[in-house]
Specification:
The protein has three domains: about 45 residues, no CATH class; about 35 residues, no CATH class; about 110 residues, Metalloproteases ("zincins"), catalytic domain (Zincin-like, 2-Layer Sandwich). Helix content is about 45%, strand content about 15%. The strands form two sheets. The chain has a four-stranded mixed beta sheet, with helices on one face. Strands 5-7-6 form a three-stranded mixed beta sheet, covered by helices on one side. Helix 3 packs across helix 4. The longest helix is centred in the middle third of the chain and has 28 residues.
Length: about 210
Amino acid sequence: MGHDGSVVVRAPSHLPTTAVERFVNEKKSWIDRKLRQIASERMEHPPKRFIQGETFLYLGGRYPLHVAAAPVARQPLDFNGDAFYLDGARHEKAKDLFVAWYKEQALKTLRDRLYIYSHLMHLFPRGERITSAKHQWGRCSSENTVSFNWRLIMAPLSVIDYIIVHELAHVREKNHSPSFWKIVETTLPDYRDQRNWLKKYGYLLNI
């Protein structure tokens, strides 16, 4: 399932289309159940309106938004550690301002955490990128460039660390074999808790 509720099927290129269709049909009940669950969750958490008092996630915490009639800082969107402040004159651009701010913070935080875990695991990617991928929290390319979804910056730091460790493990193991999961578990013994958090609450990491 994608973060947007879409259904994505990944299969080896050599696999016949009929085999893929058969697999999807076999999983239809599960897919329908998940789609109903996602629809219910979205009704409980409608799209942001960027209004006074609305809360926004950052590193797992919820912070209120204050919309000011006049600028309260040099930036049209500011965060002081306790709340977000939006210049009311820029309200029509509020979503763009939040996305830009989140991306900037994601780059800083993920780069710092990547440095820590790269040295801890002795696994070094060739580069890192922040993306807006719809269906992936992270990715390690065949050339060992790692990519991370900017929405991760809304999650707790422990969840961010799990995705970083996951992608670094792919620098050595390009699959999800027992050897791969052993690398992850050696670094993060509680990785299952973080993985389950994403499965349960990942839909909240959006605006």
